[in-house]
Design goal:
7 strands, binds ligand PQ2, 40% helix, five-stranded parallel beta sheet, Rossmann fold, alpha/beta, binds nicotinamide-adenine-dinucleotide, 2 domains, elongated, 200 residues, two-stranded antiparallel ribbon
Length: 200
């Protein structure tokens, strides 16, 4: 059983063991996170080589050793070798988060199928039952959330900050926050402007 969370990875050390196809997939979703990404692998895919050149990742061009996981917040055991992935898992301390790409029961976290519309992030998990189903549901849900959500979420955040600044009683604050998810604000920019005018 798994518990879903959002992680702030800023300045965190992330160690990826393996530089192949799956490591690349995992790293593509990590490079924008302002984390320190270290890849331990004798080989890198072309994409990862380019990330290394751009200093988006640090590359240790060699086989894994136990000390590599030291101080890592997240660890990916992402080689094509069962014994090596097992070794990575065993090398981790109990409180380190580790994803083992070929053995879900060894993982203390899984990745989810994710898409974003600005600040709106939708993540789907089948807890390992069917990554294909997660992918399919993601494709289906994308159709329900058009690009307009990006601006709508920005509006919601701005309005939320303003409402918090007003120091209102709980009931009024709650009513205003609830008002914001009314469909008219989602669809109509003028209604959003109108909402802000009400503040002045
Ligand atoms: C969400 C996504 C994120 C990501 O990592 O990007 C993800 N897998 C994705 C795709 C995908 N993975 C695989 C296929 C081929 C079809 C298939 O095998 O079914 C496809 C489809 C494709 O590639 O099109 C193969 C596969 N995956 C795992 C194993 C090991 C095993 O089951 O033993 C094997 C077998 C390897 C083999 O035996 O060959 C394990 C895991 N994969 C997970 C996540 C975690 C559970 C997520 C969940 O169930 O919700 C978990 C448990 C751990 C983890 O990796 O975090 C991404 C979603 C799609 C998207 O977002 O587009
Ligand atoms: N979790 C998932 O989403 C998922 C999806 C598909 C496949 N898989 C699993 O992934 C595995 C295949 O991975 P791939 O396609 O990325 O393989 P790959 O062959 O593309 O890459 C393997 C990488 O591991 C490196 N490596 C090998 N031994 C190493 C060591 N001792 N130390 C450091 N690096 C080492 C290689 O140099 C290479 O860079 C299979 O076991 C498959 O079951 C998982």
């Amino acid at each position: 059983m798994m518990y879903p969370v959002m992680l702030n990875l800023e300045n965190k050390r992330i160690v990826v063991v393996g530089g192949g196809r799956i490591a690349t997939k995992k790293i593509l979703n990590l490079v924008e996170q302002k984390a320190k990404i270290i890849v331990v692998s004798p080989t890198l895919t072309e994409e990862l080589q380019s990330f290394a050149q751009q200093k988006k990742i640090e590359w240790y061009p060699r086989y894994f050793v136990i000390e590599d996981v030291k101080g890592a917040f997240l660890v990916f055991a992402a080689t094509d070798n069962r014994e090596v992935n097992e070794q990575v898992k065993i090398s981790c301390a109990k409180d380190q988060l580790v994803n083992v790409i070929d053995e879900p029961s060894d993982s203390t976290f899984y990745n989810m199928a994710v898409f974003e519309r600005g600040l709106l992030k939708i993540a789907i998990s089948t807890e390992g039952a069917s990554p294909f189903l997660a992918k399919q549901i993601k494709a289906e849900l994308k159709g329900f959330f058009d690009d307009g959500y990006e601006e709508y979420l920005n509006f919601l955040l701005e309005a939320r900050i303003k409402i918090k600044e007003l120091v209102l009683d709980e009931e009024t604050k709650r009513a205003l926050l609830l008002e914001l998810v009314n469909e008219k604000y989602r669809n109509n920019v003028e209604d959003r402007e109108q909402f802000f005018k009400g503040f002045r």
